[in-house]
Amino acid sequence: MLSLKHLSEQLTSSKPVWELQSPSGGWLKALRQALGLSLKSVAERLKLTPQSIHQFEKSEAIGSISLRQLEAVAGAMGCRVVYAIVPRQGTLEALANAERHAALQAVQHSMALEGQAVEHPETLP
């Protein structure tokens, strides 16, 4: 279980959000426990059963929760969901350049197989 202080430090650090490590049991459970909220209290806010909240926490931990469900439970705890897709490594520009390079190589390979190779492919746009 993450303490309120540890969780707060992680969420307010100067690290970019994409460098955050998800708690092993998921954000919902970690936040609920750090805030001192019971399953029952969160469930009452959403007019659900404590078992439903527990199931949402389990679903998040295994990666099968929907964004709508995640946002609802987070909202009931006074939080919001921040959703982003970021490159595994490096920058988005570097990833785009690598993808363009791979596509160009595939075209050059195909053309070579067809006997239509270009002598100086590096001059292509």
Topology:
Elements: H1 4-11, H2 27-34, H3 39-46, H4 50-62, H5 67-76, H6 92-113
**Mean pLDDT across all residues, rounded?**
86
SS-derived structural category: mainly alpha
Task: Give the CATH class of the largest domain.
Answer: Mainly Alpha
Tell me about the largest β-sheet.
none
CATH fold-level assignment of the largest domain: 434 Repressor (Amino-terminal Domain)
Number of domains: 2
Uncertain segments: none
Shape: elongated
> Distance between termini?
53 Å
Total number of beta strands: 0
Order of helices and strands: HHHHHH
Q: Would you identify the CATH architecture of the largest domain?
A: Orthogonal Bundle
Number of helices: 6
| Percentage of residues assigned to helices | 55-70%
Describe the overall structure:
This protein is an all-alpha fold. The protein folds into two domains: about 5-75, 434 Repressor (Amino-terminal Domain), CATH 1.10.260; about 90-125. Helices cover about 55% and strands about 0% of the residues. It contains six helices and no strands. It has helices at about 5-10, 25-35, 40-45, 50-60, 65-75, 90-115. Helix 3 packs across helix 4. It is elongated. The N and C termini lie far apart (about 55 Å). The mean pLDDT is about 85.
